[in-house]
Amino acid sequence: MDFSSNGKYLATCADDRTVRIWSTKDFLQREHRSMRANVELDHATLVRFSPDCRAFIVWLASGDTLRVFKMTKREDGGYTFTATPEDFPKKHKAPVINISIADTGKFIMTASSDTTILIWNLKGQVLSTINTNQMNNIHATISPCSRFVASCGFTPDVKVWEVCFGKKGDFQEVVRAFELKGHSAAVHFFAFSNDSRRMVSVSKDGTWKLWDTDVEYKKQQDPYLLRTGRFEEASTMPCRLALSPDAQVLALASGSSIHLYNTRRGEKEECFEQVHGECITDLSFDITGRFLASCGDRAVRLFHNTPGHRAMVEEMQGLLKRASNESTRQRLQQQLSQAQEALKSLGALKK
């Protein structure tokens, strides 16, 4: 599944040969309408919105390639979905584990379970091939700032490359940027914060780590480790994670359960046991950070991000104590009140 960058839609794909586009404004309603795009003679295993939200790409299970769908708005407010005449050429030799589109719209990344990551332009030409040298890739993605491609696999580190473009927007090269080093076993998964200044990783060593990646890597400065938390489930089974846009909340999924952590304190705040009939296959916060979505069986589950509201309360209370002028105090007080109101309405305000 994938949330659109304008916050309006959630796209999901399944083995039933459809991609469904859901309206996020219906999330709190009883009825959840969706628009359906049919995937002819195949089904999609991965789906990603384009940055302008006027198209989406899917990875075809049988075709082993990318297909682009254009979204055209109709007069009745709905959309018509049209697949472009040509799919991307087949280039991968192993199953593809993830696809991603740069927010700048300049390139697409596809990563397969061997050690290959391909960087494509939007016309389906391969710009660069990255060999991750990690025995096998488990996860790879593009950072929200569109500068980096990162991957994890059999090794205990996360490798990050910079995708470089010239001033006129022409592709130049892919160069090594930095690595997250500190785990003692294979990294299952990682994610970026919305501003790409934080990353979080979870490993088979039974820990998760929060990193400050806002460093001068061109001067060989390494990312800083900010926090390490325990997550024992990761030592016995694969897991996924999602980081809230503000990097305050970490969601970890193992099997069919979800655990939510406060990243500032490293403490577990919520646990949702067996929320799907099968293992969770995807986990994502929406762009507002209010909701966490998960999928794994034939349904998408949505959760209120109560730890996010609590983190906001903590942060605002701390800032209020140090606020020097009245206008700042009023603004902070307003944000504090909103977060407390949200918790109250969810019955999650701690006494």
TrEMBL record:
This is Transducin beta like 2. PANTHER family: TRANSDUCIN BETA-LIKE PROTEIN 2. GO terms for biological process: endoplasmic reticulum unfolded protein response. WD repeats lie at residues 1-23, 89-123, 180-212. GO terms for cellular component: endoplasmic reticulum. It holds the Pfam family WD40. Residues 322-349 form a coiled coil. Keywords: Coiled coil, Repeat, WD repeat.
